[in-house]
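Structure ticket #2291
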Amino acid sequence: MDALRAVIVALSLLGVAIIYSDIIEDETEFPNQESDSTPSTDINVEAVLSGQLLTGESGSFESPNYPTADHQLDYVWLIKVGPTKTVRLVLIDFDTETGFDYIIVHDGDSTEHPMLLVHSGNSVPPPIRSTSHKMLVRFITNNKGTSRGFHANFFAVPPCFNAVQSSSGVIASPSFPFSYDSNMRCEWLITVGHSERILLEFFDVNTEKDYDVIQIYDGDSDRAPFLQRISGDHRNEVLFQVSTSNVVLVSLTTDESISETGFAAKFTAGNHADLMQYFVEEYPDFLKDSELNRKTEEEQDGRQEIKTTISDAMIFYEGGVKSSNITSSEFSPIVRKMQIDGTEE
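Resolution: structure written out below.
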C-alpha cells in the first residue's frame, strides 16, 4: 500500500492528479452506464481514476481525444484558483450520447460536495460558478456510441458579493443584460446613512419563474426581516421596495437550468419626506388617479412638505405597467389597487 501511494505522489508531480484518496490495490473497472436515468455519482473506491489538476487565473480543457469521445471513460479535472476567488466554468462545445455519457460538476474538490451540474446530450448548458475556489469536473462515458465530447474554459472570478456604501447607485445581475450564470448566489449589501431609508426600483426583471429568485431583506443578512420575493418576467414593469432601516440585502439565487437576463435596480437613500418627494417627481403619472393619491400640503419651516401614502398598487405607465410594492411602517396603505386591466380589485 505504501509503495502504491508513493507512485501516486510521483504522478501528481508530473501534472496528473489522483483526486480520490480511498484507493486499494485491486483495480476494477467502473460499471457501465446503461440506463437513461441520471448516473450514480458514488465513487468506486476500488478504481484508480485518471485526472488532471488545473490552476491559474484562466485556462481551457477538453474531454480526452476531443472532438471524439473515448469509450469507458471516468476522468476528472480538479480546478483550483486563488483562495479569494471562485471558479466560473463555461462550456463552449458539448456533444455526448444522451442518457449514457455525462459531465458532472461538483462545488468543491470531491464528489462529496454538492453537484452544480449533471448534463448529457448535445445542448450547451449555461455557465456555472462555484461558491469556493475549487471545482471538480467529472466525465463518464459507456462502452457504446461516442460523440464529440466537450470543450470548456474556466476563469478565476471574485465571489459574487458586493458591499455598496452610497446614497444612490445602480446594481445589476452578473452579465446583465445578457444571461446570468446557473447555480449561482449573488448578494448586494447596501448601506446608507444611519437616519436614512432605501428606496429600490427594479427595472427589466427577467428570471426563470419560481426557480431563479430575487429576495430582499430589511437588514444585513438573510436572517433579517423579509421584505419581498421577485421572480419571473417583469420587463414591462418597475418594481418598488422601501426599507425600514438603513441597510438592505438583495440576493439572487439561480438553479442549474434556464438562465435569463436577470435585473437592474436603482437605489436611492433619504428620509421619509425626501423619498416621498423623489417618488412624486420621478413618477408623476402615479398622481393622476385621485383615488390612488391622497396628499396634504402643509407649511413647515417656510417650505411645502408633500405627504403621500403609497403602499401597494399597479398603475399604467407609458404603454406598459408599473408595479409598486412599497411597504414601510412610515407608509399608510392605499385605499384600493388597480389591476392590469384597470378595474378595481
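Closing remark: DSSP finds two helices and 22 strands in the chain.
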